[in-house]
Amino acid sequence: MTAKLKTTITDAEWEVMRVVWTAKFAASKEIINVLKDKMNWKPTTIKTLIGRLVEKGLLATEADGNKFIYTPTVSEEDSVKKVTLDVFSHICNKKIGKTLANILTEATLSHEDIKLLTQVLEEKKKQAVNEIACNCVKGQCDCCK
Question: Quick one: which of 22, 45, 59, 78 could link to 41 by a disulfide (CB 3.0–4.6 Å)?
Answer without folding.
Answer: 45
